[in-house]
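Here comes just one.
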Amino acid sequence: MRLGGAARYVIEIEEDKDLAEAYHFAAEKKMPVYVLGGGSNVIGRDGGFNGVIMVNKLRGIYVINSDKDKIRLCAKSGELLDDFVDYSVKLFDGEQFGFSGIEALSGVPGTVGAAPVQNVGAYGQEIAQVLHHVCVYDYKDNCFKKMPASELNLGYRRSIFNTGDGVGRYFITSVTVELHKNWLKPPFYTSLQAYFDERGVTEFSPAVVREAVLAIRGSKLPDPAEFASSGSFFKNVYLDEAEAEKARANGIPVWDGGKVPSGWLIEHAGLKGKEFFGMRVSDKAALVLINESAKSYADLAKAREAVIEAVREKFGYTLEQEPMELGE
Protein backbone atom coordinates (compact mmCIF):
# COMPACT_ATOMS: atom_id res chain seq x y z
CA MET A 1 0.00 0.00 0.00
CA ARG A 2 3.08 2.25 0.24
CA LEU A 3 1.98 3.61 3.59
CA GLY A 4 3.34 3.58 7.13
CA GLY A 5 6.34 4.72 9.12
CA ALA A 6 9.88 3.38 9.41
CA ALA A 7 11.19 0.36 11.30
CA ARG A 8 13.81 0.76 14.02
CA TYR A 9 15.93 -2.16 12.75
CA VAL A 10 15.88 -4.35 9.65
CA ILE A 11 17.86 -7.59 9.32
CA GLU A 12 17.99 -9.65 6.12
CA ILE A 13 18.02 -13.41 6.73
CA GLU A 14 20.00 -15.10 3.96
CA GLU A 15 20.83 -18.42 5.66
CA ASP A 16 19.24 -20.50 8.40
CA LYS A 17 22.24 -19.93 10.62
CA ASP A 18 21.54 -16.17 10.64
CA LEU A 19 18.40 -16.66 12.73
CA ALA A 20 19.85 -17.38 16.16
CA GLU A 21 22.04 -14.28 15.98
CA ALA A 22 19.19 -12.10 14.71
CA TYR A 23 16.83 -13.20 17.48
CA HIS A 24 19.61 -12.75 20.04
CA PHE A 25 20.09 -9.18 18.77
CA ALA A 26 16.37 -8.47 19.20
CA ALA A 27 16.38 -9.97 22.69
CA GLU A 28 19.34 -7.83 23.71
CA LYS A 29 17.50 -4.73 22.47
CA LYS A 30 14.31 -5.95 24.20
CA MET A 31 12.41 -5.35 20.99
CA PRO A 32 9.65 -7.27 19.22
CA VAL A 33 10.33 -9.13 15.98
CA TYR A 34 8.28 -9.15 12.79
CA VAL A 35 9.05 -11.60 9.97
CA LEU A 36 8.49 -10.05 6.53
CA GLY A 37 8.38 -11.86 3.21
CA GLY A 38 7.41 -9.88 0.12
CA GLY A 39 5.21 -7.49 2.10
CA SER A 40 2.31 -7.98 -0.31
CA ASN A 41 -0.17 -8.74 2.47
CA VAL A 42 1.14 -6.32 5.11
CA ILE A 43 0.06 -2.74 5.79
CA GLY A 44 2.27 -0.37 7.77
CA ARG A 45 0.80 1.97 10.36
CA ASP A 46 1.84 5.61 10.59
CA GLY A 47 3.79 5.23 13.85
CA GLY A 48 6.27 2.82 12.30
CA PHE A 49 7.62 -0.30 14.00
CA ASN A 50 9.80 0.09 17.06
CA GLY A 51 11.36 -3.32 16.72
CA VAL A 52 13.29 -5.65 14.43
CA ILE A 53 11.96 -6.62 11.03
CA MET A 54 13.53 -9.79 9.70
CA VAL A 55 13.30 -9.83 5.91
CA ASN A 56 13.21 -13.37 4.57
CA LYS A 57 15.86 -13.88 1.88
CA LEU A 58 16.17 -17.68 2.12
CA ARG A 59 16.41 -19.25 -1.35
CA GLY A 60 16.26 -22.70 -2.96
CA ILE A 61 13.81 -25.21 -4.44
CA TYR A 62 14.43 -28.96 -4.22
CA VAL A 63 12.87 -32.30 -5.14
CA ILE A 64 12.73 -34.37 -1.94
CA ASN A 65 11.42 -37.65 -3.38
CA SER A 66 8.96 -38.98 -5.93
CA ASP A 67 7.25 -42.12 -7.17
CA LYS A 68 4.91 -43.00 -10.04
CA ASP A 69 2.00 -41.07 -8.51
CA LYS A 70 3.35 -38.17 -6.50
CA ILE A 71 6.28 -35.93 -5.68
CA ARG A 72 7.43 -33.95 -2.67
CA LEU A 73 8.88 -30.54 -3.34
CA CYS A 74 10.59 -28.28 -0.84
CA ALA A 75 11.09 -24.55 -1.20
CA LYS A 76 12.98 -22.25 1.11
CA SER A 77 10.57 -19.75 2.55
CA GLY A 78 12.02 -16.64 0.91
CA GLU A 79 11.31 -17.93 -2.60
CA LEU A 80 8.43 -16.25 -4.41
CA LEU A 81 5.35 -18.45 -4.30
CA ASP A 82 4.72 -17.94 -8.02
CA ASP A 83 8.26 -19.12 -8.82
CA PHE A 84 7.59 -22.27 -6.80
CA VAL A 85 4.35 -22.87 -8.71
CA ASP A 86 6.13 -22.31 -12.02
CA TYR A 87 8.85 -24.78 -11.01
CA SER A 88 6.27 -27.47 -10.19
CA VAL A 89 4.42 -26.96 -13.47
CA LYS A 90 7.59 -27.17 -15.57
CA LEU A 91 9.06 -30.16 -13.75
CA PHE A 92 9.47 -33.21 -16.00
CA ASP A 93 9.25 -36.70 -14.48
CA GLY A 94 10.21 -38.63 -17.59
CA GLU A 95 6.62 -39.04 -18.75
CA GLN A 96 4.91 -35.67 -18.53
CA PHE A 97 5.40 -32.10 -17.41
CA GLY A 98 3.82 -30.73 -14.30
CA PHE A 99 2.48 -31.90 -10.97
CA SER A 100 -0.95 -30.91 -9.75
CA GLY A 101 -1.88 -29.23 -6.48
CA ILE A 102 -0.68 -25.62 -6.51
CA GLU A 103 -1.14 -24.50 -10.13
CA ALA A 104 -4.27 -22.49 -9.19
CA LEU A 105 -2.06 -20.41 -6.85
CA SER A 106 -0.27 -18.98 -9.90
CA GLY A 107 0.22 -15.25 -9.69
CA VAL A 108 -0.46 -15.02 -5.95
CA PRO A 109 2.03 -12.41 -4.70
CA GLY A 110 4.33 -12.97 -1.77
CA THR A 111 6.74 -15.63 -0.61
CA VAL A 112 6.47 -19.36 -0.03
CA GLY A 113 6.82 -18.82 3.71
CA ALA A 114 3.68 -16.70 3.78
CA ALA A 115 1.57 -19.45 2.20
CA PRO A 116 1.02 -21.57 5.36
CA VAL A 117 0.73 -18.48 7.57
CA GLN A 118 -2.43 -17.36 5.77
CA ASN A 119 -3.27 -20.79 4.35
CA VAL A 120 -3.14 -19.08 0.97
CA GLY A 121 -5.86 -20.11 -1.45
CA ALA A 122 -7.16 -19.16 -4.89
CA TYR A 123 -9.39 -20.60 -7.62
CA GLY A 124 -10.36 -23.69 -5.65
CA GLN A 125 -6.98 -24.64 -4.18
CA GLU A 126 -5.47 -24.00 -0.74
CA ILE A 127 -1.96 -24.71 0.42
CA ALA A 128 -3.51 -26.84 3.20
CA GLN A 129 -4.60 -29.39 0.58
CA VAL A 130 -1.02 -30.25 -0.36
CA LEU A 131 1.10 -29.09 2.58
CA HIS A 132 3.19 -31.93 4.04
CA HIS A 133 5.28 -30.08 6.62
CA VAL A 134 7.16 -26.89 7.36
CA CYS A 135 10.55 -26.37 8.93
CA VAL A 136 10.80 -23.54 11.43
CA TYR A 137 13.08 -21.81 13.86
CA ASP A 138 11.29 -21.79 17.23
CA TYR A 139 12.26 -18.57 19.02
CA LYS A 140 10.77 -19.72 22.33
CA ASP A 141 12.71 -23.01 22.44
CA ASN A 142 15.71 -21.61 20.53
CA CYS A 143 15.90 -24.51 18.08
CA PHE A 144 14.91 -25.68 14.60
CA LYS A 145 11.85 -27.93 14.27
CA LYS A 146 9.93 -29.87 11.65
CA MET A 147 6.17 -29.37 12.00
CA PRO A 148 3.68 -31.58 10.09
CA ALA A 149 0.70 -29.89 8.47
CA SER A 150 -1.62 -31.60 10.96
CA GLU A 151 -0.15 -29.50 13.78
CA LEU A 152 -0.65 -26.13 12.09
CA ASN A 153 -4.39 -25.62 12.72
CA LEU A 154 -4.94 -24.56 9.12
CA GLY A 155 -8.26 -22.89 8.28
CA TYR A 156 -9.57 -20.05 6.14
CA ARG A 157 -6.72 -17.51 6.13
CA ARG A 158 -5.64 -18.94 9.49
CA SER A 159 -2.88 -21.01 11.06
CA ILE A 160 -0.98 -21.23 14.34
CA PHE A 161 1.42 -18.69 12.85
CA ASN A 162 -1.12 -15.84 12.85
CA THR A 163 -3.43 -16.82 15.72
CA GLY A 164 -2.98 -17.63 19.40
CA ASP A 165 0.32 -18.36 21.13
CA GLY A 166 2.10 -19.10 17.86
CA VAL A 167 2.13 -15.48 16.70
CA GLY A 168 5.74 -14.29 16.60
CA ARG A 169 7.13 -17.57 17.90
CA TYR A 170 8.21 -19.17 14.62
CA PHE A 171 10.28 -18.24 11.59
CA ILE A 172 9.33 -20.59 8.75
CA THR A 173 12.51 -21.63 6.95
CA SER A 174 11.08 -24.02 4.34
CA VAL A 175 7.80 -25.48 3.09
CA THR A 176 7.33 -29.01 1.71
CA VAL A 177 4.31 -29.93 -0.39
CA GLU A 178 3.14 -33.23 -1.85
CA LEU A 179 1.84 -32.94 -5.41
CA HIS A 180 0.29 -35.54 -7.70
CA LYS A 181 0.62 -36.48 -11.36
CA ASN A 182 -3.10 -36.64 -12.07
CA TRP A 183 -4.42 -33.72 -14.09
CA LEU A 184 -7.39 -31.80 -12.83
CA LYS A 185 -10.92 -32.50 -13.99
CA PRO A 186 -13.91 -30.18 -14.31
CA PRO A 187 -15.95 -28.61 -12.90
CA PHE A 188 -13.49 -25.95 -11.78
CA TYR A 189 -13.83 -22.79 -9.74
CA THR A 190 -16.55 -20.63 -11.34
CA SER A 191 -14.43 -18.04 -13.15
CA LEU A 192 -11.85 -20.65 -14.14
CA GLN A 193 -14.53 -22.94 -15.59
CA ALA A 194 -16.02 -20.00 -17.50
CA TYR A 195 -12.59 -19.23 -18.97
CA PHE A 196 -12.22 -22.80 -20.24
CA ASP A 197 -15.80 -22.98 -21.56
CA GLU A 198 -15.42 -19.74 -23.52
CA ARG A 199 -12.28 -21.07 -25.23
CA GLY A 200 -13.35 -24.68 -25.68
CA VAL A 201 -10.50 -26.00 -23.54
CA THR A 202 -10.95 -29.71 -22.74
CA GLU A 203 -7.47 -30.85 -21.62
CA PHE A 204 -6.40 -29.57 -18.23
CA SER A 205 -2.71 -30.02 -17.53
CA PRO A 206 -1.16 -28.03 -14.66
CA ALA A 207 0.42 -25.75 -17.28
CA VAL A 208 -2.96 -25.07 -18.91
CA VAL A 209 -4.54 -24.26 -15.55
CA ARG A 210 -1.63 -21.99 -14.64
CA GLU A 211 -1.92 -20.08 -17.93
CA ALA A 212 -5.65 -19.61 -17.39
CA VAL A 213 -5.27 -18.42 -13.81
CA LEU A 214 -2.58 -15.91 -14.78
CA ALA A 215 -4.82 -14.57 -17.56
CA ILE A 216 -7.81 -14.21 -15.23
CA ARG A 217 -5.77 -12.55 -12.48
CA GLY A 218 -4.18 -10.22 -15.01
CA SER A 219 -7.57 -9.08 -16.23
CA LYS A 220 -8.88 -8.35 -12.73
CA LEU A 221 -6.08 -7.57 -10.31
CA PRO A 222 -3.76 -4.55 -10.51
CA ASP A 223 -0.05 -5.17 -10.94
CA PRO A 224 1.50 -4.22 -7.55
CA ALA A 225 4.57 -2.96 -9.40
CA GLU A 226 2.37 -0.25 -10.94
CA PHE A 227 -0.44 0.24 -8.45
CA ALA A 228 -0.20 0.51 -4.66
CA SER A 229 -2.40 -2.34 -3.53
CA SER A 230 -2.48 -5.30 -1.16
CA GLY A 231 -4.57 -7.40 -3.53
CA SER A 232 -7.71 -8.86 -1.99
CA PHE A 233 -8.38 -6.49 0.89
CA PHE A 234 -11.43 -8.10 2.51
CA LYS A 235 -12.05 -11.69 3.55
CA ASN A 236 -15.04 -13.50 2.13
CA VAL A 237 -18.07 -13.85 4.39
CA TYR A 238 -18.97 -17.33 5.69
CA LEU A 239 -22.55 -18.22 6.66
CA ASP A 240 -24.12 -21.13 8.48
CA GLU A 241 -26.79 -23.19 6.73
CA ALA A 242 -29.75 -21.08 7.89
CA GLU A 243 -28.00 -17.82 7.02
CA ALA A 244 -27.00 -19.19 3.61
CA GLU A 245 -30.59 -20.19 2.81
CA LYS A 246 -31.81 -16.73 3.72
CA ALA A 247 -29.07 -15.10 1.61
CA ARG A 248 -29.95 -17.19 -1.45
CA ALA A 249 -33.60 -16.22 -1.05
CA ASN A 250 -32.47 -12.59 -1.21
CA GLY A 251 -30.49 -13.15 -4.42
CA ILE A 252 -27.05 -13.19 -2.79
CA PRO A 253 -24.64 -15.77 -4.25
CA VAL A 254 -23.52 -18.40 -1.76
CA TRP A 255 -20.79 -20.83 -2.80
CA ASP A 256 -19.91 -24.22 -1.37
CA GLY A 257 -19.17 -24.07 2.33
CA GLY A 258 -21.45 -21.08 2.86
CA LYS A 259 -19.04 -18.58 1.29
CA VAL A 260 -20.36 -15.22 0.10
CA PRO A 261 -17.82 -13.41 -2.12
CA SER A 262 -17.06 -10.08 -0.50
CA GLY A 263 -16.21 -8.59 -3.91
CA TRP A 264 -19.81 -9.22 -5.00
CA LEU A 265 -21.11 -7.49 -1.86
CA ILE A 266 -18.90 -4.45 -2.40
CA GLU A 267 -19.82 -4.18 -6.07
CA HIS A 268 -23.56 -4.53 -5.40
CA ALA A 269 -23.32 -1.93 -2.66
CA GLY A 270 -22.48 0.45 -5.52
CA LEU A 271 -18.84 0.99 -4.55
CA LYS A 272 -16.97 -0.31 -7.59
CA GLY A 273 -14.67 2.43 -8.90
CA LYS A 274 -15.50 4.80 -6.01
CA GLU A 275 -12.78 6.69 -4.16
CA PHE A 276 -12.67 7.29 -0.41
CA PHE A 277 -9.96 9.35 1.31
CA GLY A 278 -7.48 8.69 -1.51
CA MET A 279 -8.25 4.95 -1.71
CA ARG A 280 -10.12 3.67 -4.76
CA VAL A 281 -12.22 0.53 -5.00
CA SER A 282 -10.91 -1.16 -8.13
CA ASP A 283 -13.23 -0.91 -11.13
CA LYS A 284 -12.06 -4.38 -12.24
CA ALA A 285 -12.30 -6.29 -8.95
CA ALA A 286 -14.22 -4.61 -6.14
CA LEU A 287 -12.38 -6.73 -3.59
CA VAL A 288 -9.25 -4.65 -4.23
CA LEU A 289 -8.41 -1.23 -2.78
CA ILE A 290 -5.84 0.89 -4.63
CA ASN A 291 -3.95 3.77 -3.07
CA GLU A 292 -4.42 6.66 -5.48
CA SER A 293 -3.48 9.59 -3.22
CA ALA A 294 -3.74 8.48 0.41
CA LYS A 295 -0.80 9.74 2.47
CA SER A 296 -1.31 7.88 5.73
CA TYR A 297 -2.64 4.77 7.37
CA ALA A 298 -5.32 7.02 8.86
CA ASP A 299 -6.63 7.68 5.32
CA LEU A 300 -6.75 3.96 4.64
CA ALA A 301 -8.56 3.29 7.91
CA LYS A 302 -11.27 5.81 7.05
CA ALA A 303 -11.68 4.36 3.56
CA ARG A 304 -11.89 0.84 4.96
CA GLU A 305 -14.62 1.85 7.40
CA ALA A 306 -16.57 3.59 4.63
CA VAL A 307 -16.62 0.37 2.59
CA ILE A 308 -17.50 -1.79 5.61
CA GLU A 309 -20.35 0.51 6.63
CA ALA A 310 -21.80 0.64 3.11
CA VAL A 311 -21.86 -3.17 2.86
CA ARG A 312 -23.27 -3.52 6.37
CA GLU A 313 -26.03 -1.04 5.61
CA LYS A 314 -26.91 -2.73 2.31
CA PHE A 315 -26.65 -6.42 3.28
CA GLY A 316 -26.18 -6.64 7.05
CA TYR A 317 -22.78 -8.35 6.80
CA THR A 318 -19.61 -6.99 8.41
CA LEU A 319 -16.50 -7.36 6.25
CA GLU A 320 -13.12 -8.14 7.78
CA GLN A 321 -9.76 -6.93 6.51
CA GLU A 322 -7.44 -9.60 5.09
CA PRO A 323 -3.96 -7.93 5.09
CA MET A 324 -2.09 -7.93 8.39
CA GLU A 325 -0.93 -4.70 10.01
CA LEU A 326 2.45 -3.70 11.32
CA GLY A 327 3.42 -0.89 13.66
CA GLU A 328 1.75 1.58 15.98
About this structure: The two ends are 16 Å apart (CA to CA). Residues 228-322 form a domain with the Uridine Diphospho-n-acetylenolpyruvylglucosamine Reductase; domain 1 fold (CATH 3.90.78.10).
